[in-house]
Amino acid sequence: MSLTKTVGFVAVTTLAIGGAAFGTEQNNDTLAQIAELKAQIASLKGAENGQWLTEQRASEIRGIVTDVLADAETRSSLQGAAAGSGYNGGFFLSSADGNYSMKINVLEQIRWSFNNSENGTNPSTTTQANGFENKRTRLTFGGNMVDSSWNYKLAYYLAYSNDAEFSGQAAPILADAFVSKDFSNGFTVTVGQFKLPFSAEYNLDAGNLQFTDYSLANTIAGQIIGGGYGQGIQFGYSADQFRVHGAYVNAISEQNQSWNAGSPGTEWALSGRAEFKFAGDWGQFNDAQSWKGEAFGAVAGLGYSSEMIDDAAGTNPSALTLDITVDFGGANVTAAYYWADADTTAGNNPTAYVLAGGVFLADDFELVARYESIDNDTGANDSFGTFSVGGNWYVSKNAAKVSVDLGYGMDAFPTDQLYANWVAANQDGQWVVRGQMSFSF
Fold this sequence. Notes:
Layout: H1 3-23, H2 28-82, E1 85-87, E2 91-94, E3 101-119, E4 125-145, E5 147-160, E6 173-182, E7 187-195, H3 200-203, H4 216-223, E8 229-238, E9 242-249, E10 266-279, E11 297-309, E12 318-327, E13 331-341, E14 351-362, E15 365-375, E16 383-394, E17 400-409, E18 430-440
Antiparallel strand pairs: 1-2, 2-3, 3-4, 3-18, 4-5, 5-6, 6-7, 7-8, 8-9, 9-10, 10-11, 11-12, 12-13, 13-14, 14-15, 15-16, 16-17, 17-18
């Protein structure tokens, strides 16, 4: 019953009782009833006022909670879009709209090696060398500008030791320095200094290898003659099952060259690579490993490069590679063939092939093996081969790993290949142990 009706009912009842009381000279029983009714009225008023107060407070509390939740949801939804810094595959800075960003990455590789080789005859002289080296220390800046379709990359090697990647140039040295435009239909254009599209192995980042270093075959017949870095323009197209890249540059395996009156050193220089993917996705081939649980994948590639050197002889060196990689999800195998023609009367037309692979015994431990054979075509003792076995402990995949491998040289080595800790030796049986910690973040 509402307060108004209750009060009215009580009032009417009170008047009726009051009238009767005045007519009968108001006895004690009537007065007692009036007192009881007054007490009931006071009780009803207090209870109903209390209910009103309770409902009002509940309504206010509900309103406050709703406002707080709405504010929290708004802040949460804005957090990602407006984030200005953080870590996501690298330390990054970004504008609120995402049109300008910079990601900073570091590659640090520290290696210890031991080499045992023999030189001389009757008796042979054994030479041993060991020690630590700062294999690679690289700082990389990358991101987008203007909008997400414009990308850039600057990679600077602060230090590296005995490396053939940059044609003997000493560190510090600028590696990648380019700007790329993605046209959102599979086509990209890149201008600047970049790795040439040639071999599958060298297209892998040094921090994503299964072994402590690139193979000798890839370096001798691949990087130096057919690949490496170049300065110029590159066109690319990528579809679901195939992709192709072609570059026009000043010269093959040339970087950080300044312009002068005789530029360039070649009449033309071209490098290209085409790949066909039978299974898997392109992203899984960005590293050499096939992680446990990864989908089956297979890709085959063809690379070719050629240049016309601006000299009296019109020297025209060229190189070709064929390779295939198969990922089984916990194991992988890759095979590559290299051919190069230096176009000189002295020969120097190396050929080589590599067979390598790995298998995961646990989620974070992998056994690897590699065999390679090289014919340097330089005269006596120009053919040699190596066999290497090792293991990788992945603390955090390629972000932090420890690698150990043992390499055995089955023939005499005609030249020093110090970047991979091999040395020149006129006897077979050279062997080398390499232990490396690699951090890529």
